[in-house]
């Protein structure tokens, strides 16, 4: 009897597959994510063939490309952009690779502190950091320059920030934490027996790092490098604040000028034209990124068993290692942060002196609540909770389809997930804002908090999928198949096996996206309205309106609030996934 | 006829009546309202205006001012008209103009008052986005600071000056005229903003393009220290990064000076004046509130706010926050009539070619 | 019939790059029987098992599990893995490290939507069955290899599947433990009467546990017989060599020889053999399998080989290795080296002259393959 029923069922087996609601859910979620990514990108591409404002009807034209391509200045800019991006990744590598190894694989003390500092660094808005560096390294009043001149009796300032090295240095220091995060994962997952074999062969810790760890983590390092190379092509704040005065223009500054003219209307078409060049550069970068990533899978450790890698004993080098980290954090956090604190305490910028100290006041802090009100805090908190959640849910689904399913075209899906990273934020936000305006009847999000949340959710899917991809590859396929054999549906496998196993990776990705969304200012400004003021846009507005000490004070307060949030999130995270 | 049918007919008739009511009882467009209001005696006009504004209850302001400044404005306005809520949209000039144009194109008329600036007003007038509204308060303004057609009115003034750090430069050494900046001793010592387009345009207006461009080119030879943003420029001047800044906003100098920084400004001839304007939107959803707000902005009380915010007033008799003897100065204003659409784009391009990109 | 596979084919890759992992495999497993798929790595045994489980989708063929067609490419039937009536144990055990032992085993039952009390009862019963009753609250990473193995087994059995699939489950255990688990798995299988398909590359496992052994090579099923059958009467040269040690002697069939034996001309001389089949054509080349333990070796007697006995030659010991119970001995006969497995009572050393004889019953002609 039972066999008969089952046979009747199996006759309709193909239908059973189609009716599988879980697969439908996963499939449609992937499509929804793709839709929200592709639509703005298409809008940008279309706008590059138009003149005038988005939505204003104009015939398709190549005028923007003519203006962009036939101007020899553009090619100068291309060279600048490449040099800047290259310089930036050199600085990143210099700091990120040794610190990733030190923190993941050696017995360096205070690891939790270093990790917290790394995350805390990204809390200070990039433009405030850039300004802090301007104040630190200005030829005449730069605090660092002054100290060095006084200490060594120099005739002139030893450092000048206004050149491509200055730009690269500041940008590189700022982008080191994400690179650390990406590289550290590779060191963490490395099979310890490979290292142990090296020790057994009589090699020291350092030799093992150079001959074994480094080459093995090379694919991860190259992947992180390419990822951040693409970031460096796209970022605006540092090239704008430091590059423009040095008359070094990169594509992001040109795009900024085209979309944010002091007077007159933004030239989105031209910006789109430049944007296409950036997109091509970025896609070229991502092509190599993919090749490297595919290579690197050869080295992936596939294991279901827990292991505890042996930590390298630093011994006498411990002091040196701590010094290295201290130097880095001095550059990344302490100096800019102290500059901010100083700027928030004095009425106007001045070299610290006995006289300057008499003017120190806390008044600027008291003014902040009055200027800010409650709304920016609330908005920012909502953004920080919702955007990373949406982003990580979509990332999990997309990554799972790409890495684990056998669907045709799944690699295209991965490319789509990478796309938001390759498109300059400004253009992305402009496109979203236009779409929101054009389709406000169906989707009334124009000028709301929702659209900023949406923008951030989409933008960081690239980051989220990179994180999940890396972690997913390391989960033994058997764990998943065992669940399927046990009768679990795909959705159940995803929720009951993969999600908890990815626990720490998901939490980490969530936390980083939360912080990145917190400090994101470019898109938030473009999409801003009185109702969706963020702390980041508030700082920007305070600063540009001349409320410099108040802006600095708010910046300092943000660091403290976020510091607390970070410690709390880590504690909570440890509790939730502590059992692992 | 059954009762049922009677009832439905009554409802139909009623709804037609009520549908027609607003259009027959009130003039439809803001311009028609203002034309009707202008015919009334002042007292009655004011009463009508207040009654209308009370009904509307809210005014939507699109403005480039800082949010803090708008909050102060709102506080002052609500002290006088407690029933009026202010909803403000603030953004940079370009962004705001874009927003207004896009919203108008897609038929989303949200703004009552649009306050961007002179060149943008020219674009808005050209696109038929501004309404004509001649406030009775116009008569109290400095001459030339309200549009003849009533499309715009200047509510606040900014000025461009030469500024210097008094710790580095003594008063008698400071450059007095724009031309003094060309002196070789300032080579490599002049700070400048990367976007002082208005200053550039005003000098073009004053001197004529040829003389102005000759001056600009020679100034560009002085190895200018270009910085992005007036806030940064003011801080760097205060800190002593450079002794002199070309084309610096007077209110920014005054602001850091008020905080105790060793800075001072000189008033060359001409001082360049930038007008902040407002205009009522042609399709303003709250026309009474809009008119009432514009009137308040250029009233004595409204204009006094400017002083606290370090801006010049456009109304006669209101003291200037940082300029003494303003009557003795020649100020070249950038009113909208001087800037046909397209001119600013040209100026920006020339500015960038001469000072910034320097290919 | 509990498991039936018909003409199963699976290709990895596409077009010219495609590689046959499984080609045309057909087999059946009786209800309650234990089938082992044996073969070297890459032979297609694991792929076959994964097709059974539904973890791979075959390119061709039919699979029927306890009367129910779960795959039929011709009829477009494909039942997804989570609906098939199977339990499976993975080589890596695949114990979910974020769950306790209890939750690991309870998982399949939760997927089936069974009530809580019932789950508890069945999980406890199952853990009792595999001897893990006291460890239910332990987290998976804190288990030893053998314990993980038992958890995996319990998890596969808890939903009382029609078919149990095991993919090299013992390969990660040390030798002692492996021996114990072999017995244990077989005992459980018998006790529950569950149809089992077991994949391994270890012939001892295959021979000791199974009712039927299938040997796979290059995607093909080359042998399918009882353990004794595949050892004693392999059909193919590959099967003969893969299981146990094989002496293979090539020769050409001739006509009948005396005593009713068939005869062939080989390097050893005339080889008499028993063949149950009908007459094969004379003159054909054939490989003959001689197992080392079927070779009798005795010190050379002056009387010389009795001429009326078939398969009796003179040889010389070239190597003798003492293995404890056995003596592994290599004997050269007319230049052909034969491996012989003798009891330790033989005291032979290299260079000894010996008589070699082989019972024609123990000489098996192989299929040309």
Write up this protein:
The complex is a heterotrimer of chains A (580), B (359) and C (369). Chain A is mainly α and 580 residues long. Chain A contains 27 helices and no strands. Chain A has helices at residues 2-11, 13-19, 21-47, 63-69, 72-105, 111-121, 126-137, 143-152, 164-189, 192-200, 205-234, 237-243, 251-259, 268-296, 318-345, 354-358, 363-372, 375-404, 410-422, 425-438, 449-459, 461-473, 477-485, 490-519, 522-526, 535-544, 548-577. In chain A, α7 (126-137) packs across α15 and α10 runs antiparallel to α11 (205-234). The radius of gyration of chain A is 25 Å and the shape is globular. The two termini of chain A are 46 Å apart. Chain B has 359 residues and is α/β, with parallel strands linked by helices. Chain B has two domains: 25-157 and 274-329, Periplasmic binding protein-like II (D-Maltodextrin-Binding Protein, domain 2); 159-273 and 340-356, Periplasmic binding protein-like II (D-Maltodextrin-Binding Protein, domain 2, 3-Layer(aba) Sandwich). Chain B is built from 13 helices and eleven strands. Chain B has helices at 3-25, 30-38, 42-56, 67-80, 93-105, 118-126, 197-207, 209-220, 230-239, 250-258, 287-297, 300-308, 343-357; strands spanning 58-63, 85-90, 113-115, 153-165, 190-193, 225-227, 244-249, 263-266, 271-280, 312-313, 331-333. In chain B, strands 1, 2, 3, 4, 5, 6, 7, 8, 9, 10 and 11 form an eleven-stranded mixed sheet that branches. In chain B, β1, α4 and β2 form a beta-alpha-beta unit. The N and C termini of chain B lie far apart (88 Å). In chain B, 48% of the residues are buried. In chain C, strands 7-8-9-3-10-11 form a six-stranded mixed sheet, sandwiched between helices. A five-stranded antiparallel sheet of chain C has the order 2-1-4-5-6, covered by helices on one side. The mean pLDDT of chain C is 86. Helix content of chain C is 23%, strand content 36%. Chain C contains eight helices and 21 strands. With 369 residues, chain C is an alpha+beta fold. Chain C starts with a strand and ends with a strand. The chains are: A mainly alpha (580), B alpha/beta (359), C alpha+beta (369). Chains in contact: A-B, A-C.
């Amino acid at each position: 009897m039972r066999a008969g029923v089952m046979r009747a069922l199996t006759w309709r087996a193909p239908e059973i597959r189609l009716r599988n609601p879980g697969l439908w859910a996963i499939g449609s979620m992937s499509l929804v994510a793709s839709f929200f990514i592709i639509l703005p990108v298409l809008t940008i591409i279309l706008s590059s063939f138009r003149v005038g404002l988005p939505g204003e009807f104009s015939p398709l034209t190549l005028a923007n490309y003519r203006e962009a391509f036939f101007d020899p200045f553009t090619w100068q800019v291309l060279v600048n952009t490449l040099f800047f991006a290259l310089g930036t990744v050199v600085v990143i590598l210099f700091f990120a690779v040794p610190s990733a190894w030190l923190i993941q694989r050696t017995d360096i003390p205070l690891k939790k502190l270093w990790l917290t500092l790394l995350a805390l660094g990204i809390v200070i808005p990039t433009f405030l950091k850039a300004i802090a560096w301007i104040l630190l390294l200005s030829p005449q009043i730069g605090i660092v320059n002054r100290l060095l001149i006084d200490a060594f009796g120099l005739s002139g300032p030893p450092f000048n920030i206004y050149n491509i090295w200055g730009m690269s240095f500041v940008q590189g220091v700022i982008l080191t934490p994400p690179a650390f995060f990406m590289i550290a994962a590779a060191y963490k997952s490395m099979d310890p027996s490979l290292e142990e074999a090296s020790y057994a062969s009589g090699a020291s810790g350092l030799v093992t790092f150079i001959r074994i760890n480094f080459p093995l983590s090379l694919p991860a390092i190259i992947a992180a490098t390419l990822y951040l190379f693409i970031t460096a092509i796209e970022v605006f704040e540092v090239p704008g604040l430091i590059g423009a005065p040095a008359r070094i223009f990169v594509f992001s500054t040109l795009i900024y000028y085209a979309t944010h003219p002091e007077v007159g209307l933004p030239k989105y078409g031209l910006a789109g034209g430049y944007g296409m060049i950036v997109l091509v550069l970025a896609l070229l970068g991502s092509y190599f990124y993919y090749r490297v990533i595919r290579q690197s899978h050869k080295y992936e450790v596939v294991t279901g068993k827990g292991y505890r890698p042996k930590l390298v004993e630093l011994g006498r080098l411990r002091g040196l290692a701590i010094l290295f980290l201290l130097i880095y954090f001095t550059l990344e956090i302490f100096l800019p942060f102290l500059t901010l604190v100083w700027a928030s305490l004095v009425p106007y910028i001045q070299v610290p002196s006995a006289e300057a100290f008499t003017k120190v006041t806390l008044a600027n802090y008291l003014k902040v609540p009055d200027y800010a009100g409650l709304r920016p805090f609330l908005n920012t908190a909502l953004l920080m909770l919702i955007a990373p959640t949406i982003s990580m849910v979509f990332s999990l689904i997309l990554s799972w389809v790409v890495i684990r399913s056998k669907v045709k075209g799944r690699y295209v899906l991965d490319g789509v997930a990478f796309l938001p990273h390759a498109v300059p934020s400004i253009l992305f936000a402009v496109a979203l804002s236009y779409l929101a305006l054009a389709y406000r009847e169906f989707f009334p999000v124009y000028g709301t908090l929702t659209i900023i949340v949406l923008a951030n959710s989409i933008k960081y899917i690239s980051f989220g999928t990179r994180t999940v991809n890396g972690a997913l590859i390391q989960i033994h396929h058997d764990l998943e198949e065992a669940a399927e054999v046990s009768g679990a549906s795909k959705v159940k496998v995803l929720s009951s096996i993969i999600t908890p196993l990815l626990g720490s990776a998901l939490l980490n990705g969530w936390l980083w996206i939360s912080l990145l969304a917190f400090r994101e200012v470019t898109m938030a400004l473009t999409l801003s309205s009185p109702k969706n003021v963020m702390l980041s846009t508030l700082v920007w507005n305070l600063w540009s309106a001349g409320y410099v000490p108040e802006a600095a004070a708010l910046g300092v307060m943000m660091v403290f609030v976020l510091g607390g949030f970070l410690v709390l999130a880590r504690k909570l995270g440890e509790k939730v996934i502590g059992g692992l | 006829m059954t009762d049922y049918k009677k009832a439905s007919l009554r409802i139909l008739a009623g709804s037609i009546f009520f549908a027609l009511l607003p259009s027959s009882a009130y003039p439809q467009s803001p311009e028609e309202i203002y034309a009707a209001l202008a015919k009334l005696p002042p007292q009655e006009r004011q009463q009508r205006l207040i009654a209308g504004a009370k009904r509307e209850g809210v005014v939507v302001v699109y403005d480039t001012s800082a949010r803090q400044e708008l909050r102060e404005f709102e506080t002052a306005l609500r002290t006088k008209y407690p029933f009026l809520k202010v909803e403000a949209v603030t953004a940079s000039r370009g962004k705001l103009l874009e927003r207004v144009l896009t919203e108008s194109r897609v038929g989303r008329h949200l703004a009552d008052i649009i306050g961007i600036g002179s060149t943008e007003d020219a674009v808005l007038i050209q696109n038929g986005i501004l309404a004509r509204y001649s406030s009775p308060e116009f008569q109290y303004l400095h001459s030339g600071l309200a549009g003849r057609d009533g499309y715009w009115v200047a509510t606040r003034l900014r000025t461009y000056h030469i500024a210097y750090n008094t710790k580095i430069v003594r008063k008698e050494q400071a450059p007095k005229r724009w031309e003094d900046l060309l002196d070789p001793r300032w080579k490599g010592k002049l700070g400048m903003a990367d976007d002082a387009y208005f200053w550039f345009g005003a000098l073009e207006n004053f001197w004529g393009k040829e003389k102005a461009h000759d001056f600009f080119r020679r100034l560009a030879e002085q190895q200018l220290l270009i910085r992005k943003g007036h806030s940064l420029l003011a801080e760097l001047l205060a800190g002593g990064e450079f002794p002199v800044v070309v084309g610096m906003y007077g209110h920014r100098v005054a602001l850091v000076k008020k905080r105790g920084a060793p800075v001072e400004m000189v008033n060359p001839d001409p001082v360049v004046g930038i007008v902040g304007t407002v205009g009522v939107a042609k399709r303003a959803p709250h026309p009474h509130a809009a008119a009432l707000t514009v009137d308040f902005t250029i009233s004595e009380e409204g204009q006094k706010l400017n002083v606290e915010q370090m801006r010049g007033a456009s109304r006669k008799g209101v003291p200037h926050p940082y300029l003494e003897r303003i009557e003795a100065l020649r100020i070249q204003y950038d009113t909208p009539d001087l800037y046909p659409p397209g001119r600013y784009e040209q100026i920006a391009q020339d500015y960038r070619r001469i000072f910034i990109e320097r290919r | 019939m509990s498991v039936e596979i018909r003409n199963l084919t699976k290709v990895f890759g596409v077009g010219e790059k495609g590689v046959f992992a499984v080609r045309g495999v057909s087999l059946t497993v009786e209800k309650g029987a234990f089938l082992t798929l044996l073969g070297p790595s890459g032979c297609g045994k694991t792929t076959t098992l994964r097709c059974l489980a539904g973890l791979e989708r075959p390119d061709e063929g039919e699979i029927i599990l306890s009367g129910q067609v779960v795959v039929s490419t011709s009829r477009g039937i494909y039942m997804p893995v989570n609906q098939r009536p199977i339990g499976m144990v993975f080589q890596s055990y695949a114990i979910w490290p974020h769950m306790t032992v209890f939750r690991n085993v309870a998982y399949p039952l939760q997927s089936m939507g069974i009530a809580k009390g019932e789950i508890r009862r069945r999980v406890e019963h199952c853990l009792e069955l595999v001897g893990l009753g006291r460890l239910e609250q332990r987290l998976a990473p804190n288990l030893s290899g053998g314990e993980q193995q038992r958890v995996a087994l319990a998890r596969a059995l808890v939903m009382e599947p029609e078919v149990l699939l095991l993919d090299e489950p013992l390969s990660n255990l040390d030798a002692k433990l492996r021996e114990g688990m072999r017995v244990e798995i077989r005992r459980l299988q018998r006790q529950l009467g569950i149809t089992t398909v077991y994949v391994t590359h270890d012939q001892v496992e295959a021979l000791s546990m199974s009712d039927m052994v299938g040997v796979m090579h290059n995607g093909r099923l080359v042998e399918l017989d009882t353990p004794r059958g595949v050892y004693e009467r392999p059909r193919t040269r590959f099967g003969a060599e893969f299981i146990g040690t094989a002496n293979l002697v090539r020769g050409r069939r001739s006509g009948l020889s005396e005593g009713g034996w068939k005869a062939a001309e080989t390097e050893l001389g005339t080889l008499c053999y028993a063949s149950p089949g009908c007459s094969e054509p004379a003159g054909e080349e054939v490989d003959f399998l001689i197992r080392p333990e079927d070779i009798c070796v005795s010190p050379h007697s002056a009387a010389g080989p009795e001429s009326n006995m078939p398969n009796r030659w003179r040889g010389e010991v070239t190597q003798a290795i003492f293995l404890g119970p056995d003596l592994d001995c290599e004997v050269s006969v007319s230049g052909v080296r034969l491996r012989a497995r003798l009891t330790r009572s033989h005291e032979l050393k290299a260079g000894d002259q010996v008589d070699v004889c082989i019972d024609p019953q123990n000489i098996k002609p192989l299929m040309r393959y």
